[in-house]
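Researcher: Last one for today. Full complex below.
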Amino acid sequence: MAIGESQLDGDGGPSEDVEAQFGWRYTFGKVMQDTTARWGLYVVAFVLFVSAYTMVDSNLSRLTFGAVSDFAMAEALPIFDHPERIPPPGEIEGNVPPAFHVDGTLSHPLGTDPDGRDYFTRIVYGAQVSVSVGIVSTLIGFVGGTIVGAVSGFYGGRVDDVLMRLVETVYAIPPLILIIVFTVFISGGTPDITYAIIGVGITFIPVFARIIRSEVLSVREMDYIEAAKASGVKNRNIIRRHVIPNSFAPVLVYATLQIGVTILIVAGLSFLGFGAQPPTPDWGQMLNVSHGYMHSNVWLSIWPGMAILVTIMGFNLFGDGLQDALDPRTND
Amino acid sequence: MGLLRYTVARLIQAIPVLIGITVITFILANLAPGDPVRLMLQGQQVDQEVIERVEQQYGLDRPIHERYVTYMANLLQGDLGHSIQRDRPVTDLVVQRAGPTLMLVVSAYAFALITAIPLGILAATRRNEPADHISRIVALLGVSTPSFWIGIMLILVFAIQLGVLPSSGLVYPWWGPDHYGYSGYPELLYQTIRHLLLPMVALGTLQMATLMRVERTQMIESLQGEYVKLARAYGVPERTILRKHAFQVAQLPIITIVGLNLSTALGGAVLIEYVFNINGLGRLLLEAIIGLDYQLIMGITVVIGTMFVIGVIITDISYAYIDPRVTYGDRE
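Model: Here's the assembly. Have a good evening.
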């Protein structure tokens, strides 16, 4: 086939053809050719942009077509915690319905929550929380899983047996339950978003470890590993320089899909009250609060869920596209 | 004969996993910073003497491996410990609450299978037609939407806006019609279904979406098989081919997916029980966590892990039963 032929091109090193087939630019091009994957990428880029923007610019009132009270702003932002600030009477305008409602105003396009905080602002700031949670805990699982999986797959034998039995056992406890129990135990009964991130990350180490391991098992048999061993390279360096880089692609795809899953799980944790705590504007936590207002303020339950749905859909579409692009079987 | 041997072998294989679950839960429970007695007292000022007495009562003054051995010895006799919060044996509480959770999970699967299989076949036979595109969108939405938010939206529409279905609790048919004051078994059945409908859909949507995509892929593959070509060449009607030749083979991966996804479903049940106020294991776990009732938390985790392991064994065995190609491990 094309790959085999081009490798025999005479000049020794991998030809451009091989690089073109597996390079990042080629993968990106394939993703962009796929309409749904492209839209997924747009959504992911948008959510990432929004969360980066809110980290830099903390005054969003210009986006809400009018002045949002200081109190509403301060309380909406995770970085501006002002618990001591007591709002002057008359400044709070709680339970304002969304703009399209008869009683709605344009200064609060999505209405306000019972505490008078602008809901649109809170939703926008929620992106920052969800995205950082998704990325950081996926990263923990990814790095931890890569180390465990690479060691397990490379050394094999007893190390592999023990580690894989452990992985299997962790698999047997439903992730959400393991995460809740783990988070509560490490936090000693005072849950917080930081513990949730660590808990989710550690719980997903086995998942990543298993994928990396199966890749490593095939990479291990390659000639270049044999060559490295023969020239006396230390095992640690072989793992770091040769094994891990070459087993990377499938794990990367999985990590992209995993960010969506993580956001979903952390939203569930926060919804149950074991993740982000008020006043952090986390989408799951907002749904927890709105659960008590389902009869009176319907909109409070709708927007955060929509935000979660769109974000996760973006990551899923992009991840699927990436998978297709990196999977040699779908290359025509 | 072979099947029986396979079943026994499969059960024996599960033992290390079950032991592993208890080890992990036990370590987690002992990982908590600070000693559990102080956490239980939640900052109340008590004499050192009282603390020591409580520690002795629960055996907390002994080294961890000794405590684990005691815990396992009790576990084998069906004793999961004692709930401090409720002052009752954990086993009693767990048995009482397992029914609703099982009912919820099983019905969610029933819903998922009943909808996913026909829709998956429809999408496979009408590939790249509108029906296929719609099924893709439904699957994408199903995978990306948090189950608890689906629950909230269902409550908003069917319970609050339309007022046709109840928004909380379940009716347990095993309590009999008299307990609820219903006229007889037909009404009991009717009420059971009415109460189960919304939580079932909320929990089952994710499974439905996953299974539908798998069913589509499998049917497409199966329809391209040699035996289908042969049947077509013999002039067997397309309907018969679909029903007899292609269908059966395509169902095997579905069984595996059902078993593996049981873990997600059991975790999701915690969220759905919270949304719909169902007194199952999930709600019991949440209450136990809020009360830092360690023995109860451990007990529930062990039981849910065991449920998952049993579920996987059942699917494995039914797979072997349906597919004659599985060799039960012995090659002759």
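Strands of chain B lie at 82-83, 88-89. Chain B has two domains: 22-91, 98-322.
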